[in-house]
Amino acid sequence: MLYIPGNNPAMLQQGGIYGADSLLLDLEDAVALNQKDAARILVRNMIKSIDYYNAEICVRVNHIDTPFGLEDLEEIVPLQPDAIRFPKTESVEELTNLIKIIESIEDKHGLPHNKMTLHLMIETALGVQNVFDIAKFSKRVDAITIGGQDLTADMNIKSTKDGSGIDFARKMIVMAAKANKIDVIDTVFVDVNDEEGLRLETEYAKQIGFTGKAVINPRQIDIIHEIYMPTDPEIRKAYRIIKEFKKNKKLGIGVFAIDGKMIDAPIVTRATHVLELAQIDLDTI
Amino acid sequence: MKNVIGREIPEYINGVGKIDMFVGAWQKLKKGWMDEVTIPPPNKAKLPHQSKICQTLEEAIIKTSPKSGMTVSFHHHLRNGDNILVNSIEILAKMGIKNITLAASSLNEVHNPILKYLKDGTITKIWSSGIRGEIGKAISEGVLDIPVTIHSHGGRVRAIHTGKINLDLAIIAASAADNEGNATGCKGKSAFGSMGYASIDTRYAKQVIVVTDNMVDYPCIPISITQNFVDYVVKIDSIGDASKIATGSTRITKSPIDLRIAKLAANVIEHSGSFKNGFSFQVGAGGASLAVAKYIREKMKTSEIKGSFILGGVTSYGVDMLNEGLFNTIFDVQSFDAAVCSSLIDNSHHIEIPAALYANPFNCGCMTNKLDIVVLGALEIDTNFNVNVITGSDGTIRGASGGHSDTASGATLTVVVCPSFRGRIPIVKTSIHTVVTPGESIDVLVTERGICVNPLKPELEEKLIKAGLNIRKIEDLQIEVESIVGKVQEIEFTDKIVGLIEYRDGTIIDVIRQVKHHG
Amino acid sequence: MEILKKSQSGSFESSDIIILIEPVEPNSGRNIDIDSSVMLEYGDTIKALITSKLDSYNISDIHLIAKDKGALELTINARLETAIKRACNIQKATMH
Q1: Of A44, A160, B185, B377, whose Cβ has the fewest other Cβ atoms within 10 Å?
Q2: What is the DSSP string of A262-280?
Q3: Is the ipTM of this structure higher than 0.90?
Q4: Is the Cβ pair A279, B484 closer than 8 Å?
């Protein structure tokens, strides 16, 4: 998952070329307070016009308690990106409110409530404590993530390279995700020039259960992919899904089952990613 | 009329004569010889112990009895630090010499000061492999009546052999020389490396002056230029700006887009069938091009593949690969950074080669013919894979043909790496301003938005698809690029021809027209 | 719509454009200055884009300066919209 600052046209227009599985177009921390309106408009136009190929598009909006959050949602929700990433989630009450706002915008535009998903960022001690309930609350929540920088600030501890201060939080968030069978994405590694450090942290994240990692520079993507390269059973399963999908598509069937499990668009997308990671050409299937 | 790749070229051009049209990349070579007659090099004699030393460059130039209408040549190994070309032209201009044909192996921004001599009739003709800066712009706007000729590095040697470029005077800058004119570019404060492009000039020019800022005791070792071709030797304070001549190591780009392109290109190379033990390799020094070497280096280590030779413009990065044992030899016609000098002196497997051996098509086999893989850049590329490396998006001259068409024609696998658009300027287009290298000699285009294989190479395409690479039609890529950047306004040109693009075999592959003045 | 105050959007970065807007006397018309690194290739397109944007906001009196560094059309559109909304005091949710 590649973070792209929401007010940077050069980076936004090239976001799709690096092979990231997911792009995080950021209206929050990467945008200066006096440019929030500019970024919102720019990101909206980018999503409308730029082909991001197979990457999932996720927009990180500002928190609804800030002066910008509501307007971000008004502008972005109608575009129905694959997901909205919501920062500093702390409680179920907050989440209830957020979903209500999103759904009312969707209603206003005649959009369904089940297409765009939510990624919730856990970035405070309170959020970590409530994470299980947060993760469980809605079907729309399909991933939770840890925000390392903000969490250390909230805990009033130093952010260290070994991540010891947030280790408990990492594991707690992973557990909440696993218990609810949703994705869980690790925080960014800020030192772009330290490839070895990134490698170690990513290996650890994978080991304790994170399903992916956010990056702040395209140069970091290859290392993450190397570590998250799918295993043979994963590749075989994905291969089967795509094969069945293509067969059914020809027959005009959109949703089908394999071994009794429903296969819908997001699962096909994930299978596509697995095969892409494994460098298997979909056209040969 | 239109030549075989559809470029509109007049059959006759004033000041040039009848045009010999391009007929295909290898067509003329198939014969096994060149129809044009080669001219003999000049005869000279010197008495024993006769001094060649002159006190000033001016004195040396006066001794060569320069005349109006003469041809004078320079090499471009001093990069953007060169003082010699501008100083020499100023001396000739002061002497009232007119109608000079300038045969510089390449022209850079540093040569901007000679623009006034293009305007006042001192210089009326130019032969070069590349023209940048104000001179390129002025030529595109029509400052010269006779079109300039852009040749390749190999083609320049051919043109000198045939007398199309008939050298009266060669002024050769060296970073070290002795009093007989033995000279090198590898030693001294202005060291720049190989002198590969200067070699042919010393053999064919009627008069040869070696200029150095570092006179050493006889003999000057290593000998790149040998005394038997040198008429005069001059010691001056400085041959140029050492900080721009003696550049440090070339660094790999940090641009994420260039790195992305380079990585894709390395994947192409890995699965092309040419990446195997004993392969030979050449990359340019530019952003994505050099970065390919970084990834190939890693792949060679992990796959335990050892190459034969690195060719061409050589960077310190290539030297590192030689020292790591990844390649057996470097053949160095031009050093892109001065950090390679010590390797040229100390490593017997790092060999300086002349341009003739590097790329001249008309001999018993230049080294580009032995090339397996070359990675090249592009200013523009069309959907027939024709490449422009000489004119910019505004139609003005601002690049260099260099060894582009030479290596593309020779290599088994020619990979062009470039972004599909730069800023808002499309690079992949339906039609390009100027063709330097014909599409038939390009095998693969690698951009950040996908890889396109020349339809002339279906087996290659099949291999790359099998390897899981994202191969797409160049036409589709062009359409996508246009949808992103929008349609470019047509640049307006007049009918006046300001430049000829000479293919390496001496035929004309394209012409450059004068840009219409705006405002 | 009326331009109420000076405003600015965008940046001097490559692939971006700076838009500066100033109010002018009523009925003095549009005064548009464009400077672009891709003037030869896209000058007319940029001008047409700005004109149609001003039309769509019904702005007839304005001084607008654009300094472009190869911004895509969508970016130019976004920067124009931002600058106009700021100048007309109709922008939402930002801080100054």
Answers
A1: A160
A2: EE-HHHHHHHHHHHHHTT-
A3: yes
A4: no
